[in-house]
Amino acid sequence: MAPLGRAFYSRRTEVVARELLGKTLVRRLGGEALGGRIVETEAYFGSGDPASRAHRGLKRYNRAMFGEPGRLFIYNVHRYWMLNIVAHRDGVGAVLVRALEPTLGVEAMRRNRPTGRLRDLTRGPGRLSQALAVDKSLDGVDVTRGESPVVVLDSPPMGPVARSPRVGVTRDLPEPYRFYVEGNPWVSG
After folding, report:
1. How much is the pTM?
2. Which end of the chain is more exposed for a tag (fewer CB within 10 A), N or C?
3. Residue 64 to residue 62: CA distance in whole angstroms
4. Residue 74: CB partners within 8 Å, gap ≥ 6?
């Protein structure tokens, strides 16, 4: 199956954030496929978004967020890598992938992130990145190319979508830009 194309990501950031729910994120690592269905995302915008990494303009650390839609933007928060996919129509924006329902390479993910409960394997962006062995080397990777170490595949919808304010954001926009599959046990909050 071919990954989602650049046109999917070349739309309004919040539309992409919502429509990524249910899609399958695949991380190829050491000959194995790790990943699962995306169940929680957050949309981040440019200079008008006080919670965005792009709020203060283009910098060395956020260059990918200003770049071509369909590329990864990886940054660190509290020693954990955050996996974002650049998505915007014109300018700047990215979608933080907050949680997956694990379906591929579960044992390999458990080696990367040992946990007693399967539910805790990929629930939350830090846990997800540990399980998928995400690090800064993936920053700028093009997820629209079939040979990429990270791709997103089309999958059928999973259930009703809910919205809420973004998690852990002290200065937020008035619109709720966190999207999640309602009732899914892998949603982080």
Report:
1. 0.94
2. N
3. 6
4. 64, 81, 82, 83, 84, 134, 135, 136, 138, 139
Domain range 6-180, CATH architecture: Roll (3.10)
Taking the chain (189 residues) in consecutive chunks of 10 residues, what is each chunk's mean pLDDT?
94 97 98 98 84 71 85 93 94 94 98 94 97 97 97 94 88 87 94
* pLDDT for position 170: 78
CA distances from 19 to 47, 62, 70, 158, 164 (A): 24, 24, 14, 11, 16
Would you state the pLDDT for residue 74? Answer: 96
135-152 pLDDT, tens digit each: 999 999 999 999 999 999
Complete DSSP assignment for the chain: -PBPPHHHHSS-HHHHHHHTTTPEEEEEETTEEEEEEEEEEEEE-STT-TTSTTTT---GGGGGGGS-TTBEEEEEETTEEEEEEE--SSS--EEEEEEEEEEE-HHHHHHHS--S-GGGSSBSHHHHHHHTT--GGGTT-BTTSTTSSEEEE-----S-EEEEPPTT-SS--SS--EEEETT-TT---
